Description:
The chain is 53% helix and 9% strand. By secondary structure, the chain is α/β, with parallel strands linked by helices. The longest helix has 28 residues, at 3-30.
Amino acid sequence: MRRFPECMAVVFVFFGFIFLHHMYERVIEKGVFSIFDNMQVDSLQCLSNKNRIHFHAPDFYRVSEKTSLRLIVAYMRGGSTLLADVVRQAEGDFYMFEPLHGISQTLGNTTQFLNGTKRVILRGERESLYPELLYHWFTCNFDQIDLSALTDPFISIHTPELQEYYKCTVLNLNKSKSTIDSVKRCVYLLHNRCMTARSRTIKTIRLSMFMAGKLLKWLPNLRIIYLVRDPRGILNSQFEQHVTEEKRMFTTVKKVCNSIISDLSHTKELQLCHKSRIMSIIYENLCQYPFKVVPKIYSFLNKEFTNTTKKYIKRIMNGPVKKCHYCTDRGNALGNAYRWIRAMEEKTLIIIDLYCSFLFPLLGYKHLNYDELNTTFVSWMPFE
């Protein structure tokens, strides 16, 4: 009887060796990434808890199966406004431009929602709060939306189809001097537009792909387009326009490129669970080959690529050049995408290379020394 535990130990060691040897052979034969891709994904973020955290409304709004939901996730100065205009180029779309902008500016202060709730939103709460807010935008549940978003000037600037609602809030605010009262008097205009829309589109630079994964679970109709641009183009544009939230260049560069690698990782992970509902787009590819890329985007969204759309794409991508920083119909899209090559300072390029060069081969971008910028016209060269 004393030898029984020893025999069992030998058996376990033997079978353990067989299992490890089998795994070794599979890795040698197929590669370690093939093994991981075929493993069960029970531990992945895309299969995590589906419960909503912050807003416990008694009855969540429902989305009709016929209503298409589209979310564009991108980066500041990454081409998302152009892509959003391409996506929403259809009658009957309800579009919101950066609905998280207002609340992102008031983190740490008291935020009021249309239902009267007041909360102090801390920076660490964004991961759970932001998906919740976009869920309510997609379901037209404006009672759960912050007042800063419902009165943001972006509505007037980027969604002219919502001018009636925005003008109504301004007019009533001048009369009542109460933001919440003025929005409550006018929100029916926003709600009617949202509920009757055949599609609803949101574009945001303030949502990570980790956060977006929650929306895929909550909204079966949702499709996500993840837009990536050469980080050198993103950062050069941010520094030129002084739109970065960070004061130190080193901090900004590191933050942007860490966000990109994190989003790339989570996008790959989410595709294991929602492959047909996520599409990744390279901004430079869109600008260089719009009549190849846009039809693919439309096919992904189950939209028809019409002659009217084709004319629109030709006008905003290749039309007359306009001098403006934020308009999307300024023509020469490819030239605008690569303008950084002629404009970037050597010091800036060195800092970006220090923190971001590891991304270039992952995305198909060419590493460029400062001396090479004088002889280079494009940086996205995936097939070199």
